[in-house]
Amino acid sequence: MVKELLEQRRLPELMKMKDGTEVTAENWAQRRLELVDILAEYQYGRMPAYDGKTTAVIESSERSAAGKAVTQRVKITFPTPDGESFTFPVSLTIPDSAKGYAPVPAFVFISFGYPKYYPLEEIVDNDVIVAEMIMNDVAADREDHYEGGMAPHYIKDGQRESDTFGKIGMWAFAASRVLDYLLTLDCVDKDRVGVMGHSRLGKTALWAGANDERFTHVFSNDSGCSGAALTRMKVGETFPRIANVFPYWFNEKMQEISVSVEASEQAPFDQHFLVAAIAPRKAYVASAMEDSWADPYSEYLACHAASPAWEIHGLDGFCAPNRLPIPDEEYTDGCVGYHLRPGTHFLSRYDWIRYIRFLKGTEDDWEELPF
Ligand code: GCU
Q1: Element (H, E) at 130
Q2: In whole angstroms, how far apart are CA 156 and each of 78, 161, 176, 214, 253?
Q3: Which residues touch 257 (CB under 8 Å, ≥6 apart)?
């Protein structure tokens, strides 16, 4: 059934190089770069080159999560191409347990900064570090003609080339700067550092993970259109709609492929390219049943379509049945995790708990997670 549903979508071929060569484990690294390049050219814009001189200052520190952790306010600074620098804050919570012998997993959580659900105590009880970065501290989520945040350091007078990045690219770039800092900390397990975001920030987490291979796990919560959902035959939000309402999230060329639904369905990529660009690392896509704007089935089918990118490495890709999912099902046996939460568009405790499990990767210490 899944095969037929995917055939109807007429997706661009993932497992062929641009020159027509079959994709194998040997040329995967090159194919991955092609995927990132095509998504940068048509949709998100190119990530600026970066030489890695990120610095951090701990501004304050307080006991948190009922006294089981410390939350630090850290100012992250990175040099910008105009010879200046940009600084933004991160809220970094380190459980006391992380001061033990073994380093612990960590999330870079790209956040709206207003109460979307953020279960700090559960995260801490499960010995996981979380670094929360708020999108508006990096670049405002509105049409400001690139005058605020990090944008003017990269874009002069609001003038962009067709492949200059938009806000999604800026938030993703900043998530990598948070990662620069986390990777300097002894308490962080470098083999388990995930990037996570909800909705527009789920799109951002996928793009951050596609670009930065140091993220070992990538979590997309209800990311929908131009996130994990296939564009071809998608219901709910479409490219013309998203490009019209949120042009500043994307590059300029996104407008050209978004003049009509037909034009967007002719683009030389679909969103399974974005999920696949995370291979052979771990990806997790989560949907909510009532989130028809994002389109849960188009997210689920993208996971199936991306799965060969893991299989060529001899890994299990997306281990899910040959049918559409029903609410409350989760598939986490392969390198691509998925769940379909009952309910509406939201980042819930239900979602977080599954992300914690997937990031930890072992069943030993799951008792504290009741769901
Ligand atoms: C809007 C937008 C979506 C986006 C969502 C969000 O609904 O159309 O693409 O994912 O906002 O970020 O909450």
Answers
A1: strand 129-134
A2: 18, 11, 23, 30, 18
A3: 42, 239, 263, 264, 266, 267
Q: How many domains does the chain have?
A: 1
Atom in ligand 1 nearest the alpha carbon of residue 225: 9
Q: Output the domain CATH number for residue 169.
A: 3.40.50.1820
Which pLDDT tens digit goes with each residue over 269-296?
A: 999 999 999 999 999 999 999 999 999 9
- Report the atom number in ligand 1 closest to the C-alpha of 198: 12
Distance CA 297, CA 261 (A): 18
- Residue 63 covered by a domain: no
Strand order in the sheet with 336-341: 55-64, 69-79, 85-95, 129-134, 104-111, 188-198, 217-221, 282-288, 336-341, 330-331
SS3 for 288? Answer: strand
Distance of alpha carbon 316 from alpha carbon 147, whole angstroms:
45
Residue 216, domain extent: 2-52+94-360
pLDDT tens track for 329-352: 999 999 999 999 999 999 999 999
Residue 57 Cα to ligand 1 middle (Å): 33
- The amino acid at 303: C
88: in domain: no
Residue 263 lies in a domain: yes
Q: Could you tell me if the CB of 237 is within 6 A of ligand 1?
A: yes
Q: How far apart are the first and last CA of the chain?
A: 30
**Whole-number Å distance between alpha carbons of 139 and 361:** 33
Phi, psi of 304, deg, nearest 5: -60, -45
Cα 247 off chain centre by: 19
177 located within any domain: yes
Q: What is the pTM of this model?
A: 0.97
* Burial label, 231 (beta-carbon count in 10 A; 0-12, 13-18, 19+): buried
b or e along 263-302 (b: 16 or more beta carbons within 10 Å of the residue's beta carbon)? ebbebebbbbbbbbbbbbbbbbbbbbeebebbbbbbbbbb
User: What separation in Å is there between the alpha carbon of 269 and the centre of ligand 1?
Assistant: 21
CA of 107 to the centre of ligand 1 (A): 22
